[in-house]
Specification:
Layout lengths: L2 H8 L1 E3 L7 E3 H11 L4 E3 L6 E3 H11 L4 E3 L10 E3 L3 H8 L4 E3 L7 E3 L3 H8 L4 E3 L6 E3 L3 H8 L13
Antiparallel strand pairs: 1-2, 3-4, 5-6, 7-8, 9-10
Length: about 160
């Protein structure tokens, strides 16, 4: 190899991926393979190919296969799901998703607590009066016992002491 050829090989050439780095011809392949921020890298989550310099941002913000917490965490869900499955999980499968009370009290209750709400806490659940055996809404039960129940005990107005 002549001196002119050696000088030509030592001359810096720009990175062929366009990152702006200049390297001697003999080091350019190593730069592109191992160091270039524009080199292609596979996302471990979705197996897509991205520039190395964009990969971290993709994995944290854009990747459909990144793990995210359920939006129903405030009600108790601790599931971690892939971003592309968030809608189905949060709205159709999560046991902590909010659902309306079937007794139509207007409340939105976590799905896993709805039965308990309707059987033990809802103001629109019906309770049986021990005295008249009628069914009365829980919200009106106290009033029923004091004022409406036909079998309630009342003080006789006609008794003289």
């Amino acid at each position: 190899m002549s001196a002119a050829q050696e000088d030509e090989l030592m001359k810096p050439v720009p990175c062929w991926l366009g990152c702006g780095f200049e390297e001697a011809v003999e080091g350019e392949a190593a730069h592109v393979r191992d160091l270039c921020p524009f080199r292609a890298k596979e996302c471990r989550q979705c197996q897509g190919i991205y520039k190395f310099c964009d990969l971290q941002d993709h994995m944290e913000k854009d990747c459909l296969k990144r793990l995210v917490g359920c939006g129903n965490a405030h009600d108790g869900c601790v599931e971690m799901i892939t971003f592309d499955f968030v809608y189905q999980h949060e709205n159709l499968r999560c046991k902590y998703r909010r659902v309306p009370c079937r007794l139509q009290c207007g409340g939105m209750i976590p799905y896993c607590k709805r039965d308990s709400h309707e059987q033990e806490h809802c103001n629109r659940r019906e309770l049986e009066c021990d005295q008249c055996k009628g069914l009365v809404f829980a919200s009106k039960f106290g009033h029923h016992l004091k004022k409406e129940c036909v079998e309630r005990m009342v003080k006789c107005r006609w008794v003289y002491v």
